[in-house]
Design a protein that fits this description.
14-stranded mixed β-sheet, 3 domains, mainly beta, 8-stranded antiparallel barrel, 578 residues
Amino acid sequence: MRNFTLAMALAIGGLTMSGQVSSPASLTRDLTGGMMKHFERNNGENGETAHIRKAPIAPEAMPMREIAGPDAAGQIIDYIPEGEMKVFYKTGFYYAYNWLLGMLSGSLDGSVSRVVTSPDGSKMYIQNPVTYFSDGEDNWIVGDVSDDKVTFTFPQLISYFAYEYGEGNLIEFADYALKLEFIESEDGESGWYYPAENQDYTFRILADGTLEPTEPETMIGHCSWVEKEDTDSYWAWQGTGDLLSSMKELTDVAVEVPAEVEMETWNLILGISTRDVKIGVNGDKMYFAGSFTEMPEATVVGTIEDGKVTFDNGQYLGILWSDSSMVYFLTGYMEELEDENGTYNNFVITENMTFDYDAEKKILSCPEGTFLLSTVPNRAIYYSYTESPYICMPNPDAKVTKLLNPVIVNFLDYDEEEGYYPEIVFNFPIVDADKQPLDKSRLYYQVIVDGVPYEFYDSEYELPDGETMITDVPFGYNSSSLGFHASGVKHNVIIYSTGFDTLGIRTLYKGNSETIYSDIAWIDQYTKVNELSSAKDITAVHYYDLMGNAIVNPTNGIFIRQTKYTDGSVKAEKIVRR
């Protein structure tokens, strides 16, 4: 199954070219020659036929075709058949339907299927015959092998499930693979795919084992049988199918790390974040595993020479079976281009990528380069990419002198009518200004309200065990109730207070001898008045009720907060605590 989530995001809003984007491959992530330039390929490319360029538009009335309905005894092949298994990669064109974007289409480059030939050579099975079919990869079709051909007779059931709705109502869903042909509309500008009268789909088997369809203008499509009480029942194409040009055996071999090589955990720095990768050295060879998060063991190899490490372009990483695609390591750089539609980023492929290598400090860096994980070795139909990669061995003894500032992602202001208190959503940097990974157990954050670190009390919040009041919230802290939430570097915190003039957030790193503070990231509508440099600027904070009585632990209600500073000034403000 292919996942359309990122495809929708790209199509709707484009993609910011910074850091790494990691997700299953989309239908349109093609950076070569411009990102999101079009959904369809040029006429005739990869053997595609001209009618591909004509938009499939669902007709108002389905023409009746003399095609038999499904066989009630049809069985799904949802297991691996017995026989010799190989992996084949597809060329050609796909159609796919997405509920938000509608009809999508593009090249099948990089798509793979398992192919099994039975022990006696009489049968051939193809897994996932409709690449963008949404019901996973555990579906097969079976064909009969004769001489230099294999013929698949459709329809063949590829998915079935049922559930009870109410009492005695069984809801059934069945999906079939059919041979489809394109029928033009009367205007000749559009058309639709319908079941072909002859449902035999045949491949020629070439000398090298390549499969070539004898009718490349026909499609293996995903269809449903529509039952009608008042009219004839019919087959309906579901907008998904493969127009194959060929299926060829995949012979590329992934890099294997020699048994004697010790792989160490290093960190790949991604802006304010970081993740683990593996680096191993054997003589003049360096092995780099973890460039692709979905395949953490997939490895590329580079050559070490004179303080440099060079990785060749196009190294094969393996197959991501959850997406039925090959993955290759591409090297290059990003350039910004401009046309009549505006500016866009273009990935330029190079023969290799050279890192500066500090063997003593264990640092790899390539400020001008980009590595990219693609489904093909010669074009950027990509999963993810990393610009200006910086990879280093974590150093717990490194001296931290300057922190990166937290990044405000969103702010939800106080809503009296709905009863919502202010909430800050921010990204918490886990590397310092020198690109050193930080010990997350030493990281904290403070919410700064009117120049004062906000106090979180156990009467309002679920605090870490044993705490009754804190100002410093640990990195990654989550409470089971509302208040604190963290997922990776993204953090949310709710402030049970209103009536403040300024609001911001900063991070802290508590070293062995001193605490390092970031600058304060201020909320736009509550911008700074006097920036706080450290907690020692405050000498005392007291709370009083509206009658002037001192309150040691203010909980729910309205209070006066009095803050005294080292310069002798005093500030009083009214606050609301829930």
